Amino acid sequence: MENQERKKRVFSGIQPSGDLTLGSYMGAIKNWVAMQDEYDCVYCIVDMHAITVRQNPADLRRRALEQLAQYLACGLDPEKSILFVQSHVPQHAELGWILGCYTQFGELSRMTQFKQKSQQHADNITAGLFTYPVLMAADILLYQADFVPVGEDQRQHVELCRDIAQRFNGVYSDTFVLPEAFIPRVDQGARVMSLGNPLNKMSKSDPEGCVNLMDPPEVIQRKFKRAVTDSETSVRYDKENKPGVSNLLTIYCAATGKSLEEAEAAFAGQGYGVFKPAVGDAVIELLRPIREEAARLMKDKAHLESVYREGAQRAGRVAQRTLDKVHRKVGFIAR
Ligand code: ATP
Ligand code: LTN
Active-site residue numbers? Predict the structure, then answer.
């Protein structure tokens, strides 16, 4: 235990606001799994973030549990990493409040995700949606994380977290480790685009353009066959002029481990009629074991419960250490 603490720490989380997608797998979870041996990793199901937009309670509960099953099925190992549910560790909300007092209104107003989500949910722009990045900063800073493996879209939030930490450290004295975003290379899935509109990010909120980890093979194949491409025939990477084909090439490479050059060579002289189903097949094979294992784990609720309970206890101990330090620094009376 003691010498484990010398390892660099990793923290990341995903909201249980919909099924996990190929985008979140390639942008984030793949790296989470790979980082487990070298780092001290903490991975979270951020249900408190999910209620920043309206959720159906029964669905939220079910999806949080399914998400844990999918985390395990992807290869996250509770023996190596701490896996837990955010609302089970109250220190997140507590530190979130404190950090909100060290965050500027103007900083939060500049967040791209807030601008997008407040357009999507124009009838329900809550204070929680606005202060979302502060809670995310609390998530990361509670664990003194060095690295935060996320997709490209989350870079801005991690930078804000770093700014908040730096400000707090400056006002008091060194309290928080300054975290760094850990993002895959572009050709390894930093930003997987929608199959329906390759100019938009693949996202849970766009069912046709997105592949879910739990989609059966025939659904995956149908989505790839319908993927938007262009009116040429050559399979080559050109993000500006061929966004659809470039996205499919990226997915193919991330799924098979091939380089862009190898992938282009493999499909040289072949049309999209061959290329699109081949990408579908690669993704089917990538996701098959994950889907099967997650379905098996969902039948063992007792195991899932023991994983999240044990995770919350371990997470709570680490989080409380940081929170005690923060209370002292800001001048709260010790309990
Ligand atoms: P929503 O549609 O609710 O915003 P989402 O589909 O964008 O959700 P998140 O839960 O916000 O997914 O993201 C989970 C993690 O996966 C984050 O680290 C995010 O950066 C990453 N991620 C999500 N979508 C993609 C994508 N298309 N490409 C690469 N990474 C992604
Ligand atoms: N904002 C992230 C989810 C998230 C997160 C975090 C990611 C909440 N807290 C802490 C990394 C670290 C998202 O929307 N995908």
Answer: 117, 201, 204
